Give the backbone structure.
Amino acid sequence: MDLEQIVQIRRSVRKYSGENVSEEKINLILKAGLLAPSGKGIRPWEFILVRNREMLNLLAQCRKGQAAFLKNADAAIVVVADTHASDTWVEDCAVVMAQMHLMATSIGVGSCWVQGRLRDAAPGIPTGCYVAKLLGIPENYALEAILSLGVPGAEFLPRELGDALLKKVHREVF
Ligand SMILES: Cc1cc2nc3c(=O)[nH]c(=O)nc-3n(C[C@H](O)[C@H](O)[C@H](O)COP(=O)(O)O)c2cc1C
């Protein structure tokens, strides 16, 4: 698949077949994150790969209903960053997430972004605090997001660009 096909077929996949994602594929996805660009090349991020079923079930409770599909995922990659290391840590982590999401698509692995920053696990319990406690994340690291991974439960057709999307492109001036 070339990049054009990958971006057309990419979807947020929340339904998984239950089959195993090979360690080789997981490593390719991690590689795509590790090779992502970052502001000043600081790479303030760290990734935590979770494959333990019990931990995935607990991570599924990191959001009120928006992360339940982690229960059926085969793996998750938790992306955190040292917020003092770089003032572009949010953008840096977002690029990592996007690259891993696209790599997953290209090798037939379904993935979905679970937002961690600015979200709550329960009233008064920020998602970041909930996840940090579970995974022993040091205090100076903040949670950006979690990439849920699994073998897709369905196939997707490539998307075409409709008028509504094309209208978002302005030429020369807004
Ligand atoms: C910054 C960001 C945060 C997201 N957070 C969540 C989330 O917490 N839970 C979820 O199920 N999907 C989440 N998504 C996936 C979006 O819902 C999804 O990209 C959107 O509905 C469009 O669908 P598509 O990715 O299949 O094109 C997030 C995506 C992005 C880029």
